[in-house]
Structure formats: C-alpha cells, structure tokens
Amino acid sequence: MYAFPSVEKNLKRYVDAGFPILYIHTFEEVKADRYISDAAGGKEIIEWNGSEGFVRFQSKQPFNPPGRSLEATLELLKKGKELDRKLLVIKDIERQWTTKEEAGQGGLDKVTALLKGIAYKIRKEEIDATVVIVSSVLHIPEPLEKLTTVLELGLPDEEEIGSIIDLSMKNYGLPAVNERLREEMSTVFKGLSEAEIEDLLHLAISDSDDGELTSKALRLIFDQKRQIILKAGILEMIPLKEGIDDIGGLEVLKGWLQKKAKVFKDVKAAKEFGVAIPKGVLIAGVPGCGKSLSAKAAGKLFDVPLLRLDMGRLMGKYLGESEENMRKAIRLAEAISPCVLWVDELEKAFAGVSSGGKGAEVTTRLFGTFLTWMQEKDSAAFVVATANDITQLPPELMRKGRFDEIFYVALPNEEERRKIFEIHLGKRRKADIDKIDIDKLVSQTEGYSGADIEGVVGESIENAFVKGSSELTTKDILDCIHSTHSLSEIMKEPLKEMAKLYEDRKFKKASR
Ligand code: ATP
C-alpha cells in the first residue's frame, strides 16, 4: 500500500536529476533533515517551517526579517535567480493549503500558485534548485501533482532499532546490552520514531542503576510508549485484562480465535509453513452480548498488544488530515505488529459511505484506505472489528478477502446464560455460588443479554449489601430479574429483524 520509493535510496538521485518538487512523507523530521543534508551535494539548503518562518537549514536561525510567512518567502525566492543552486525545504505545509472554496478564483491558492511557478522555472532549467516538502500529511494540490514526486521515510524496523540501541549505548560510553534484552527492546520500540527511541533510551539509562540496562527498562519503555501512542490521539493501548474464560458461551467464535492464536504465536514458522497470516474478523450482532469482550480477549489470547482505533478522533480539520490519520493508525499498528487492532463501532465510522454529500466524501476516502489495507495486508496486525448494525455498513466490506470470517452474536441461549451467571457470580460472590439455583435464574432470563445478566448480578449484590445480608441468595437475584426489563423486551422487533437479516446472509453463528 505504501509503494512510494524510499528516501534512503532515491532522494539524492532525484535531487541530482533535477526533479522540481520532492515530497518526503514522514513522521521523522530529524531523520529527514539528515537525508536532505546528505543529498544536497554542495547546494545551499534553506528552510521554511511553521514555527520560525524562513530560516537557515542547519542552525534554524531566521533570515531577516524573522517570522516571514510561506507566501512572502516564496514570493521572494521566485524572483530572478534567487533560488539557483539551492534546496528549499518546506515543513508544516499542511496548514498552508486552502480548500477549493477558500482559494477563490480559479481554485488556486497563493502558495500552490507560487510553488507551481517555481517548479516550472526548475523544469525549464532557468534555475538549478529543488523544493523538498517534509510532511506527515500526504496532500498534494491537483495543480502540483505532475510536478511532485513522493518519497516515503518509514519508521525504523527491528534491525534499525537494534542499531540505534547499539549506537546510543556506545555514545553514552556504556557496555552493549545483552542479546536477549536487545531483541526484546527492539520489539517494544516498534512504532516509534528514531528521536522517540533515543529519548526513551536516555530516560531508561538515567533511571537505571549505574547506567546498566536490565529488564526493568522494558517496563519503563513500554509505559512511556503507551503515553506516546496515547498522545498521538488515534490509537489507544488497552491493558490486557479479560481473557477467553471471561466470555460465557460464543463457543464457535472462541474456538476460531483459539485457532488463529496458534498461528499468531509463531507467525514466522506459520508463514514458512505456507499458512496465510490471518487478516481479521468482523463480529456483529446484538448489543451487550460480548462483542467488545471478545475483541479484548483476543489481545490476551494472542498474547500481543491490543490497540483500539477511535474512529471519532480520526476526523481532522485540515485537508487530507482524516485519511492521513487513518494511514497513521495503520502504520502504527503495522509497526507495533504483531498486535490486535480493535476497530470499535465500525458502522459509525463508515455509515453514509454511499449516501453522497460533503461529509460522505471524506468518509468514502477513509473507507477506501481501510478497505485497500484489509485487502492487501500481510502483516501480523489482526483486525477485530465490532458492529451492532451491519445494515449501515457498505456491502464491499463484507465481500470475501476483507475479513477471514464474519460472526453473528445473538442473545445468549440457556447454556450460555448459565455460563454468564457463573462467570459474574464467580467474580464477585464466589462463596455463595454453590447455594444459588442457577437453573432457576436461567429459566427466568430468556431474552436477556450478557450485559443485562451482569447488571442483574451487580444490582442484586448491591441490594443484598444495603439491606445488611451476609450472603447473596437466589431470591435476591430473582427479585432483581423481575424488576428489570430485558433487552429483548425493550427491542423486540429490531432484534427479530436483525436475527433474520444475519440468517439470510448466512453469517457464521458465534454460538453453538
Ligand atoms: P455493544 O455493542 O453495546 O458495545 P457488546 O456486544 O460489545 O455490546 P460487551 O461490551 O462485550 O458487549 O458486553 C458488555 C458487558 O456485558 C461485558 O463487559 C460483560 O461484562 C458482559 N457480557 C456480555 N456478554 C457476555 C458474555 N458472553 N459472557 C460474559 N459476560 C458478558
């Protein structure tokens, strides 16, 4: 999916060949600076960035007058031979583009028009120069598309991380970390930029005794990485608490997940054996019946980090920002892989894809990015998507090749309700469980969801405590059942329709 040429191999070649605009797509400004320095080949490098304005590249000292806008800088550089034998680096450009509506006549905003003018001068060989845009947001205005070449500078892979660790230890004058720890650290550092890795190493070293890194450092690095991912604001790292044994019923789904877990536990061997790396699963169906619980349990079962993608936070305000956030999330998940990527409330994110209208345009592009990724993915980022209402989902998503399987979660049957009661009573009132007539509870809770049952258990325990009882009895729970309304009472018709729909589409039932 990210089939752009790499900066490492191509930047210098393209500069030498006189390409007018190069667009380095990256989260790593510091690393990009290094490659730009190497590629300049004796040309002077100048820079414009959002915080300082027009500055010298190495020192970041502003030219006079300081704080010049990008537009004013480009006006200046466009004149005569001003830019000859120079490399102009532009950062933070994503805030400079304007939308078509804002741009006015001809739909061309000032920055685009000036860049276009400069690019033509380079093309016609009036000047020998290159414009290098460095940005984490990939957005190229249409008039510049043919003049721009995109290069990708990815996050460090495990091998590069290993070298960063070695070099940092050497620079601090410390002994190299042992092989095992180095390997573990390389895995934990995945998904972070070079600068972030160096900062965390520095922190781990100052936190250690005598500067020697031990497994204690791993914990620190992991916690800090959680912070970094959290701050990026799109993916949330969920602590692994619930396991497969916390799910009552859904035996078919659990068995399926257990099989995939075996593949995930040793992706390398599985790949060598010819096993296709599992892409993911869509779990749809009745609210409160264990969809989210299954997503969480998958993380623990696979023994990998669990990342939740917050679709709401994906939507940005700059041009191209929402898609860029989606790419960022995908890239992070791939870098952190093996991992489970939980996409919650899928229908909320992609509802309205086919409805047309202004908002739908962004959603449709977001959806396209997600779909292509699912289709082509061969990394060990396993997607667990959960949805309540699949009628809201675009049909393309349910075609073969996207998810390995689509499961339908229905209201729990008798056997499942028994298990759910046992799980929740076992968690809170283990001592009373043998005295409670679970059969009776099961027979009185037809049409209750897992969440309803959990609610009944919780409330009856609270009632028993408040009235001063020393134990929880069957009667306490039955009283509670009789005073609540089950999900199927409240949503009788929609649930019936939902069940029919899933049966018609022949989705796999999560329960036996
Ligand atoms: P929603 O679509 O409303 O998010 P959901 O299907 O994702 O619903 P969960 O969040 O998994 O529902 O369930 C809510 C709570 O109900 C869980 O935290 C769990 O305590 C309880 N629960 C639901 N189903 C089960 C189950 N099969 N076994 C045990 N507990 C369950």
What features would you highlight for this structure?
single chain, 512 residues, alpha/beta, seven-stranded mixed beta sheet, six-stranded mixed beta sheet, 13 strands, 48% helix, elongated, binds adenosine-5'-triphosphate
Description of the structure:
- This protein is an alpha/beta fold and 512 residues long.
- The chain is built from 22 helices and 13 strands.
- α3 (70-78) packs parallel to α5 (110-123), α8 packs across α9 (215-232) and α17 (414-428) packs parallel to α19 (450-466).
- The chain is elongated and about 90 Å long.
- It starts with 6 loop residues before the first helix and ends with a strand.
Beta-strand segment tally: 13
How much is the radius of gyration in Å? 28 Å
Strand content: 5-15%
SS-derived structural category: alpha/beta
Look at the structure and give the mean pLDDT. 87
Helix count, DSSP H or I runs of 4 or more residues: 22
Small-molecule binders here are: adenosine-5'-triphosphate
Distance between the termini: 38 Å
Shape: elongated
Low-confidence stretches: none
Largest sheet: 7 strands, mixed
Sheet with the most strands: spatial strand order:
7-9-10-11-8-12-13
> What proportion of the residues is helical, as a percent range?
40-55%
